[in-house]
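Sanity check. The docking grid for pimelic acid depends on where the pocket ends up, so I'm generating a full predicted complex first rather than guessing from homology. Inputs follow.
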Amino acid sequence: MRAAKTSCKIKNKNNSKLKTQNLEHISGAEGIYDEKDVHKICNKYIQRALTHPRGEPDEIVITIEKIKQNPDIASILPITTSQCSSPDEARETISQRLSELNISKKAVVNAFKVLTSKKTMRGASLIVMRSGKRVEPDKERGIRVSRMGITKTAERKLLQILYKIVIPAKVYDPTHRAGIQSRETGFRIPRLLTSRAGKPGITGTHDEMIKNKITTIKEAVILASKVASCQSVIAEVCISDDPDYTTGYIASKRFGYLRIPNIKKYGEMHGGRVMFIKENTEIEDLIGYLEKRPILINIQGK
Ligand code: PML
Ligand code: MG
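Predicted complex below; grid placement will be based on this.
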């Protein structure tokens, strides 16, 4: 497979005097694509960067890289969604799952310190599952999980699942036409959205919001599936740092990808990722795998 990697970073200055040193990273996105799709995907990344909820970017950086190593294949995690109505309940659900995975209370407390800190990290924190020690070499940058993509077959299947998650229930429509309403977003949109996206009857805003949400979950599932494919990672917890995105997840080989609605309140800026790792993990090898090894996610057993 001839593959290319694109990544887009946007930065927002928070101190005009120290412009170059003090650029705040506000978002990133990436994937592994066939070369013919690279132009199209770069345009999408630019569009996303320019409309990001964390703020208008001062700088957008796009990197396109030829992947020389053949990607390894890892299985996609199965997706479920928990019932959760508040950040406190979310914390309880996550702590419960982590304790079932033999992760210590100290490690959980340290993880929540990272996830709820005002100062968000660009990448993920690595926390040793029993001692609770943070072992990522650079505590500000963290570990940037990179070089992951999805096969076309798995992507099609994943999108079908995600449409059902984001737009699940048919509801009564007072105009006497069948409609559907998202249990999570509350948006009511015409029933044929998936086959008629962009056609009359579908407002741009609804259409865009649904599409953005599906992209967010898709990218998170791909990343979490790569992380879970590491032998030394027991679990990962993520809270989006986007102020308008309040669903997080806990992912592990044992439980799959469990979505946690209301993990934070609307408008809050904190967020991040933590990975709980085995005690005797070779940190350099793990970082090499997460940041450098190209991985394509596929459906289980294919
Ligand atoms: C992010 O990239 O902002 C994190 C997204 C987490 C997605 C959780 C979900 O809705 O499944
Ligand atoms: Mg973000």
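Relevant for the grid: Residues 154 and 298 are 5 Å apart (CA to CA).
Also worth noting: Residues 72-298 form one domain.
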